[in-house]
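Quick one: structure tokens for this chain, please?
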Amino acid sequence: MADFHQGGHVATLHNLRHNTADDLARELDLFSSTRKITLILPSLFSELEGDALPAIIDELNKVNFIHRIVIGLDRADEAQYRYARKFFAKLKAEHVVLWNDGARLKAVDARLQELGLSPAEPGKGRNVWFCMGYTIARADSAVVAVHDCDVVTYSAGMLARLVYPVTNPNFPYQMSKGFYPRVAEGKLNGRVSRLLVSPMLAALRKVLGPRDYLDFLSDFRYPLAGEFAMRTSILPDMRIPSDWGLEIGLLSEAWRNLSPRAVCQVEISDRYDHKHQDLSEEDANQGLSRMSVDICKALYRKLAADGTVFSEEIFRSIKATYYRDGLDLIETYFNDARMNGLHVDRHVEERAVELFASNIMRAGQVFLENPMETPFIPNWSRVHAADPDIVADLVHAVSQDMDEFV
């Protein structure tokens, strides 16, 4: 990926191999003396039992520019929360663990429910949203970064490259989005981005006509990357989905709230691999099947909010157009993989396109059946307006958990 091509709306910051991760880290050490950086790690308890997260902690202990690490812990009972506290105690940086299933944070969530402001469903989006609220309440960081906890090829250099564009005070960027090749074990991965999002955006443009929003999303080399960084000043007005549409939802909010010139994508790795989801053809509520439905819904919601009128006939046209474009792309990916000594199973790829085509319609039906569905978690500005004490109480609840369950 070491080229210098620039697209239309979004600045692309490449890795041209003339600056090392250590060079960037030294600059970040200087910047972070006045522009503190918080890292958010949304984690399932099960990820503490895998191989990726211990290695991530070792890499994080190599950097000095992180001010605080905020860990959102999901699906953990009391014993597992205590274990997590011991597990993350190896971190050199200051850190806190938000026990999302604990009584105190559940009480905060109950207050949000009474106000009609609680996230609609559990998931990564809900986890990140509470961590953002905590970061806003602490009010001592200029930059916040988020990345997943299942990256098996993680390095400290990935984090340095991710946060640098929004930490350097001479750069104009308010948000940076990571990108990288998804290659592992001799295979070309990243099926949802390659076989759903790219042809889906092309199909939407063909059926609905030109849209600057669709062009904006198409500029991102890896729109579903879970690695992004933002200046904290934009956090209070960010609305995000609570489901698998988190990444598309964040980019949609960037489009709504920021000038495209304030957004960049940055090449953070030559090699990236993480936990792979099953296609889950038999269960639309699991794996890549559920992910594809949620991503489609996120796109429909944003387009509808901008005035697009959808109908069952339009969804049928989108499905048919997508299906043809998706099948055509398989040939391109096969040739790309073959030239690079990688493997692509055309049969498996076609099965994925067929499933995603069906889920384009499934998502459309859900959208039409629930026209009043609230598409995003309310932003933290609205939460503060409804209950000015709740963010302080969130910080207090986390502190009490940290003090009690040592």
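The longest strand covers residues 66-74.
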